[in-house]
Amino acid sequence: MWCLPLALNLALLAPLFFASAQGSYLEQANHIPGSTFRLLYANLDHSNKDTSQAIRYIEGKNADLVLLQEVTSRWLTTLESNLSRYRVVTSFPKEDSTGLAMLVPIAPSKLLELVATQIIALPPYSGQPLVETTLRWEGTEVVILGLSIIRPQSHDSSAFQDVEFDATAEWSLR
Question: Is 60 exceeded by the pLDDT of residue 36?
Answer without folding.
Answer: yes
